[in-house]
Design a protein that fits this description.
alpha+beta
Length: 85
């Protein structure tokens, strides 16, 4: 499946490589340009962004990710510049 983006930066995050793509979202390896920290960025596909059920699922995934703390799991980082991550 092709990447959903043709740009290589969103706000202060550089997108380095597509990690996975599904019918609902794409996940990229990226870098926070302010801190240099490596990050994972999950971006919903445009086709599902306005679907209320998808939004609920995506929001629930975000809430669960905030509670996880393990060396083998990517840590959820709230983006201070946006009200929605």
């Amino acid at each position: 499946m092709p990447s959903v983006l043709t740009i290589n930066q969103i706000d202060h995050y550089a997108l380095e490589k597509l990690i996975s793509a599904s019918t609902t979202a794409s996940t990229y390896r990226g870098r926070d340009l302010r801190t240099g920290r490596q990050v994972a960025i999950k971006i919903p596909r445009i086709e599902v962004e306005s679907d209320p059920l998808f939004y609920q699922r995506f929001s629930r995934e975000q809430e669960i990710a905030k509670t996880l703390d393990h060396p083998s799991i990517v840590k959820f980082i709230e983006d201070e510049t946006r009200s929605r991550v």
